[in-house]
Specification:
Elements lengths: L11 H5 L5 H8 L20 H6 L31 H8 L4 H19 L7 H25 L3 H24 L8 H13 L21 E4 L2 E7 L1 H7 L10 H23 L10
Antiparallel strand pairs: 1-2
Length: about 280
């Protein structure tokens, strides 16, 4: 988001409306529950980053301009992967002068520069914990009553406790970065290792049910859509059309996926904790 704030808006109409940066347009047209932050969608599996994100738990992103979701109710732009998706199409119709392509490239350049120059990696553990919290609320908003009616109340509470723990630890960890001795290479290495490995805590070595190749329990393709990204796919897939699912063990499968996610979120929280906080005092 910080990189997008530095990039001039290529859309004259947006600039005239007071939205002078790429970030301003992103925030205005794709808002989140937080008025200061735009929404970030789950990355899919239809590109080269799939193995990094879905298997190894290495954070990935795909910044791009997209169509107006409110105006166009389509799954993708019509020319996608067709013989008509040509240089002529881009140069004359989609992006004349490649102004938007340039803006996306500038965002990438800023991201690379920031990552390369930073002594402390510009990764935000709090943003990840907030993302997990928001997405989990959407699951419980849709399925919560049904889950409680089928004796999963305790599973929901344990899941929420794990997320609360992650949010507390992430807040404390990010606040502690202000006091890091940047002249101490071991202190710098410690926090950078925690930032790099945080997302990898959400990798289940056993893989997702029915598709063991995918191991990231937070962000992997759904069993019912192998191209798009899904959040907590193990949980949401086991809840898919559960009202008409005749499998006698269907709720046990939901419970199992909830338990795995709860454990791994708790592990992520523990990974951010100071080593001294694990010491038991009598």
């Amino acid at each position: 988001m910080a990189a997008a704030k530095k990039i001039p808006n290529p859309n004259p109409a947006e600039v005239a409306a007071g939205r002078t940066t790429a970030f301003d347009t992103w925030l205005y047209h794709i808002p989140s529950d937080d008025p200061t932050k735009p929404r970030v969608f789950a990355v899919g599996s239809g590109s080269d980053y799939s193995s990094f994100l879905n298997v190894l738990g290495i954070p990935c992103l795909e910044p791009r301009y997209t169509w107006n979701y409110d105006k166009w109710k389509i799954s993708s732009y019509p020319m996608y992967h067709s013989v008509y998706e040509t240089f002529f199409l881009m140069d004359n119709i989609t992006d004349p002068g490649f102004k938007y392509s340039k803006a996306v490239t500038q965002v990438w350049a800023e991201l690379v520069r920031d990552m390369s120059d930073a002594m402390i990696l510009p990764l935000d553990a709090k943003s990840l914990s907030d993302y997990i919290s928001v997405e989990s609320k959407q699951i419980f908003s849709k399925y919560g009553d049904l889950m409680r009616a089928n004796n999963l109340t305790s599973n929901i509470e344990y899941f929420k406790e794990a997320i609360d723990s992650l949010q507390r630890e992430a807040t404390e960890f990010m606040s502690s970065l202000k006091g890091i001795d940047r002249m101490n290479p071991y202190a710098v290495r410690e926090v950078n290792d925690k930032l790099m490995n945080l997302h990898r805590c959400l990798v289940d070595p056993q893989g997702l049910p029915g598709r063991e190749f995918f191991k990231n329990i937070l962000s992997s393709p759904s069993q019912f859509n192998s191209y798009a990204g899904a959040v907590f796919p193990g949980i949401t897939d086991s809840l898919h059309r559960i009202e008409i699912n005749t499998d006698p063990d269907k709720w046990k499968k939901v419970q199992k996926n909830m338990s795995i996610a709860t454990y791994l979120i708790g592990s992520a929280a523990s990974s951010l904790r100071k080593s001294t906080h694990f010491t038991r005092t009598e």
